[in-house]
Amino acid sequence: MEHMELNGGCKKSRVLIIGASGFLGKELYKTFKADAENYETYGTYAQNTLPYCEHLDITAVESVKSIFQKYHPNIVIITAALTNVDYCEVNKEEAYKINVIGIRHIAEQCKLYGCTAVYVSSEYVFDGNNGPYDENSVPLPINYYGESKLAAEKIVIKELDKYLIARTTVVYGWDTESKNFMMQLIRNLSNNKAMKVPIDQISSPTYCPNLANMIKESCDLNLVGVYNMVGGDVIDRYSFAAKAAKILNLNPNLVLPVETKTLGQVAKRPLRAGLKADKIAALLKNQPLSVVEGCKEIKKYLADK
Predict the structure, then answer these.
(1) Which is deepest, 94, 106, 252, 285, by most CB within 10 Å?
(2) Is 57 exposed, middle or buried (0-12, 13-18, 19+ CB in 10 A)?
(3) Domain that holds residue 115
(4) Would you say residue 20 lies in a domain?
(5) Per-residue pLDDT tens over the stretch 70-94
(6) What burial letters (b/e) apply to 157-196, b meaning 16+ CB within 10 Å?
(7) Number of domain units in the chain
(8) CA–CA separation, 277 and 283 (whole Å)
């Protein structure tokens, strides 16, 4: 599918963000929309109605076909997913329908329209025995959410020549409608409520606007392949929460370190995980932000509100 010819022959890409009403999706929509010179930006939602987005049920093939017919995208960014790890473990059929079948429907249309697919994946494709992982590490998921994300990755790789898989994890930031880890922390500590946080879950917390900028720049550069797009630190959840509390002037004593096994979570968690971001960092101006840098951005945002 050819790019739109605008501004005296300047090529403008049509980018379709599937899941634009979600936490990352909203940030991506805003990021691409800000570059109106190079992108026409469109978005879809499944449940959370947004005035600038169109409804899309990725599990219904006709719904997917009609969206592609309407927008003829050049780039399709897939953030839509069932992401509640414990819910996926108990509701495998529903998780498969959304996280695997839904992605297959999108990949088929991307192939038909010759567009690039950007699929947002997860560190949960790994078992968490010997992280942090690079892009060449062999995936081995230990919960159903991870299995569904890996199955979707394989579909994208098999079906398409032009694809970008962005593996990320613990995406955090300020969004009052979001249940991301940072918002849970702020809500609890602001109300003087203690919060149990695992000391044995090691990961790579990723500041949401930073991730959106990395994805956008990767599209600008036409990058293809698998890339880890995460923050600059590999850190356990408790240390992350304690640092965030201090920076945001919340009481770090309300953050209680516990072991994962005491939390009674249904799905297994990859404990020693995290992702190495060296490959993407070598290519982008937008560098992975550390936990301190990300939290300072939130503090600055709140001060400006």
Answers:
(1) 106
(2) middle
(3) 4-172+208-232+274-289
(4) yes
(5) 999 999 999 999 999 999 999 999 9
(6) bebbeebbbbbbbbbbbbbeebebbbbebbebbeeeeebe
(7) 1
(8) 11
Residue 168 phi/psi, 5-degree rounding, is -140, -175
Enclosing H/E stretch for 32: helix 23-33
pLDDT in tens, 215-267: 999 999 999 999 999 999 999 999 999 999 999 999 999 999 999 999 999 99
Global pTM value = 0.96
* Rounded alpha-carbon distances, angstroms, from residue 91 to 84, 217, 295: 10, 36, 34
Instruction: Give the contacts of 202 (CB within 8 A, at least 6 positions apart).
Output: 128, 131, 132, 234, 235, 236, 271, 272, 273, 274
Burial of 116 (C-beta count, 10 Å sphere; 0-12/13-18/19+): buried
The position carrying tokens 């968690």 is 269
CATH classification at residue 115: 3.40.50.720
Whether the CB-CB separation of 55 and 46 falls below 8 Å is answered with: yes
- Domain membership of residue 267 (yes or no) is no
Is residue 100, in this structure, part of any structural domain at all? yes
Distance CA 59, CA 108 (A): 13
Residue type, 290: S
Q: Distance (Å, rounded) from C-alpha 277 to C-alpha 232?
A: 7
What's the distance, Cα to Cα, between the start and end of the chain in Å? Answer: 42
